[in-house]
Prior knowledge:
- The complex is a heterodimer.
- Chain A is of the alpha/beta class.
- Chain A has 13 helices and twelve strands.
- Chain A has a ten-stranded mixed β-sheet, with helices on both faces. A two-stranded antiparallel ribbon of chain A has the order 9-10.
- By secondary structure, chain B is an all-alpha fold.
- In chain B, helix 5 (110-118) crosses helix 8 and helix 6 (124-132) runs antiparallel to helix 7 (134-143).
- Classes of the chains: A alpha/beta, B mainly alpha.
- The interface between A and B is large, with 59 and 65 residues.
Amino acid sequence: xxxxxxxxxxxxxxxxxxxxxxxxxxxxxxxxxxxxxxxxxxxxxxxxxxxxxxxxxxxxxxxxxxxxxxxxxxxxxxxxxxxxxxxxxxxxxxxxxxxxxxxxxxxxxxxxxxxxxxxxxxxxxxxxxxxxxxxxxxxxxxxxxxxxxxxxxxxxxxxxxxxxxxxxxxxxxxxxxxxxxxxxxxxxxxxxxxxxxxxxxxxxxxxxxxxxxxxxxxxxxxxxxxxxxxxxxxxxxxxxxxxxxxxxxxxxxxxxxxxxxxxxxxxxxxxxxxxxxxxxxxxxxxxxxxxxxxxxxxxxxxxxxxxxxxxxxxxxxxxxxxxxxxxxxxxxxxxxxxxxxxxxxxxxxxxxxxxxxxxxxxxxxxxxxxxxxxxxxxxxxxxxxxxxxxxxxxxxxxxxxxxxxxxxxxxxxxxxxxxxxxxxxxxxxxxxxxxxxxxxxxxxxxxxxxxxxxxxxxxxxxxxxxxxxx
Amino acid sequence: xxxxxxxxxxxxxxxxxxxxxxxxxxxxxxxxxxxxxxxxxxxxxxxxxxxxxxxxxxxxxxxxxxxxxxxxxxxxxxxxxxxxxxxxxxxxxxxxxxxxxxxxxxxxxxxxxxxxxxxxxxxxxxxxxxxxxxxxxxxxxxxxxxxxxxxxxxxxxxxxxxxxxxxxxxxxxxxxxxxxxxxxxxxxxxxxxxxxxxxxxxxxxxxxxxxxxxxxxxxxxxxxxxxxxxxxxxxxxxxxxxxxxxxxxxxxxxxxxxxxxxxxxxxxxxxxxxxxxxxxxxxxxxxxxxxxxxxxxxxxxxxxxxxxxxxxxxxxxxxxxxxxxxxxxxxxxxxxxxxxxxxxxxxxxxxxxxxxxxxxxxxxxxxxxxxxxxxxxxxxxxxxxxxxxxxxxxxxxxxxxxxxxxxxxxxxxxxxxxxxxxxxxxxxxxxxxxxxxxxxxxxxxxxxxxxxxxxxxxxxxxxxxxxxxxxxxxxxxxxxxxxxxxxxx
Lengths: 470, 489
C-alpha cells in the first residue's frame, strides 16, 4: 500500500513540475513571439506605403496565378465566394472551383450562377486523384472553370485543381471565403520581390461574421454580435497577427492557413502535392516542402504577410466550433507525427530546433497537459501536496497571462491595421481579450483534448464545419 | 513538501503583479494610441478639407500658382513637410498633372528633403533640433531608417523627378533591399534613357553575383518598361558569354516589342526602330543560340523583323528539338501575316508535347474561318488520337460548338455533320447535348435524332431516352423511339 502511495505522490509531483515547466517555457515562447511579431507587423505596416502594388498590377512580368477553390456542400455561399474571387484585382488570373462530389446543390448553383455548360475536356493528371465527373465552362467567362469529381476530401480536390491549372503559382482559397480585391496582389508581392524561390506565401484570415457586405465584398468591418464569434475574433487576431507574423520574422513558418495561401506549383508537385493522410493538409504540405527542399538541396523560402486579407465565416455554434478545433488539433498531431524526423534536427535550422519543437510540445502536447492539469492540480490540493493559495494564484497568473497575450494581439491590431474602426469596437475587443480566458479558453482546450484523443485512437475523418451563409 | 512552495508562491505572486501592470500598460497604450490616431486624423481631415482644393487647383492649373503655393506654405507645425507630402501625394496623379506636381514639390522643398533622405543625409538644423528635444533623438534615428529612404525614393518616382535618376541609380547600392526596390521602380517611372545602361549592369550583377538581394523579376520589370529605342544598349548583353544574361536580354527586347505591337497592329521592327546590328544579331545568332530559352524568346522578335530570312528561320524553329521553343514559335505565328504557314502550323497538332498541340490549335483559330477549316480537316483526317482529342478540347473551350450546330442545320450533309459524328464517336457530346437541350430550334433536334440518335454514346442515349419520354412534340418523340430501336439493333 505504501509503495502505491509513494508512486502516486511521485507521479503527482512530477506532473506538477511538468505543468510549471510548461507554463514558463510555453509562455516564454509566446512572449518572444509577441515581441517579434510586434516588430514584424509594425515594420511591414510602415513599408506598405512604398510597396508598389500598382506597378505589380501593370507589369507584364507579374506571374499568372490560378485560384483553386475546393467546395464540398457549400451551396449557401459558393456563388457569392466565386463572384468575390472573380473581382480580384490581378492582371492574369484563372479560377478553378473543384466540386468534391457535393451531395447538395453546390454544382447546380454554380452552373446556374455562371451559365456553365458541361464539356468533355482533357484531364492530364500529374498527381493521382479520384476520378473526374465533368468540366463546366462558360466560353464567355474563360477564366472560370468548374471541375466536378468524386468525393475524395479537400486535399484530393486541391490536387485536381493543381492538375488542371497551368500557371506557375496557385492560390488555395476556401469556398466560404470572401477575398479583398487587392489581396492576391499583396500576397504575390513578396514572391515577386524575392530573389529566392518563395514556395509559399500566406495571408491573414479575418472573421466575416458581423461585417457588412456588398457585391461580394466587405464594405464595413464590424464586430459580430454573438459572444462565441467575438471570442474567435480575438483568437484569430492572436493566431495570425502575432503567432504567424512572429514565426515569419524568426524564419520558422510551419503553418500558413490553406484557406488563403499562394504556392509554387512545380515545387508542390515535386514534393508530392497535398497528402491525404492528415486532416490539416495545409500544414502538412508546408512541412513536406521544407523536407523536400532539404533532401533535394533546394533553396526555398516561405512567407507570411499580414496585409492580404481573406474574410471567412467562423462557427456560430458550439458544435461546429468543436468539430473545427478537434480537427485542427488532430491534424497538428498527424502532421507532426508524420514529419517527426524534423524534431530537434539542426539541418532544418530554426524550423527543426525551435518551430517544430514548439508545435510539438507547446501547441500539441501542451493542450493535453493543460487540460489534464485542470483536474490533476485540484487532486494534488486534496492530498495536501499543493497549498490552495498557490493553486489559486497560479490559476490567476495563467488567466492574466492569457489576457496579456490577447491584449497584446489587440494592441498589435491597433498599432497597425485598425480594421475595427469604432472606439467601442476597441473596448469590446479588449474586454473579450480578458473574458476569453474564463470559460471559452477551457472549452476550446477540451475540444483540442478531444482532438488529441482522436489522434491517439487513429481517427482520420475530415469533419465538415457547416456555415449558415446567405 | 513536494517542491519549494515558499519560493514558488513568491515567484508566482511577483509574476502576477508584473502581469497586472503589463496588462494595464498594454490597455493604456491601445487606448492612448486610438485617441492619438483619432486626433491625428481629425487634423489631417481638416487640413485636407482646407487644402485639397488648393492642391487640386494647382495640379490642374486652375489656380494661380503663386497664390496656391503661398497658401500651402502657410501651413505651420513641425510636421508640415509630412503634411505637404500627404496633401500632394495622397492620390496617384494623372500623367498630365505630374509636371505641376513636380514643380510644386520642388518649390515646397520636398524634393530636396527626399533627395537628402535617399542619400541617407540629414541637415544641421535637423541634427540641432534632434539634440535639444528628447523625442528628437528618436526622430533622428527614424530619419536614418530604411523606411524613410525607401519612401523618399518612391516619392521621387511618383513625381518623375528626372534630375534624381543618378541619385536613385546610386541608391541601388543601398544596404536595404526596400530602398533598392523603391529606387528601381522610380527609375522605371522616370525612364531616363541614360539610366538604362546602369540598370542593365544591375541585371548582370543579379545574374552573376550570388547573394544579390534584388530579384530578377524586379530588375526585368524595370527594363521592360523602357521604350524599344533602348534596345541597342542591350547588344553587349545579347552577345554575353553567360547564357542567362543572353536569355534575359532577349526576353527584355521581346517584352518591349510585344508592348509596342499591342498598341499598333501593323508594328514591325524595321530599320527605324531596330538597327541593322540588332536585326543581324537576332537573325543570324540568337535564332540559333545554344540556349533554347534564348531561341524561344528570340522567335517573337524575329517574327516582327521584316526580312526574307524571318519566316524560314521561324519554320526551322518550329521543328526545334526543345518543346518549349516550338511552343513559343507556334504562339508567335498567331499573326495574320503567317496565314500562308497554316499547313506548317497544323503539323504541330501532332506534336509530341500537348502544350504545343494546344497552342497550334489556338493559333489556327486566330486565322478565322481559314483556321477553323484547317482544324476541322485535321480533326476528320488525322490518325493521331491525341491530336483529335486536342482539337475537340479546343473546339469546346473556344465555343465553336454552337456555330458548328448552326452550320450543321444549314448544310445537312456537309463537313459539320462529319465533325459532329466524330465528336459523338469520341464521346465528346456533353456540350453538344446541352446546346440541343436548350435550343428552341426543333429542326436541329430532329436532324440530330435522325443522324446520331442511334449512336452508342451514353450521353446521346440518355438524351434520346429523355426526348422519347418527355418531349411534347409527337414527331420528335417518335424519332427518338425509332432511334432507340436502331441503337438496340
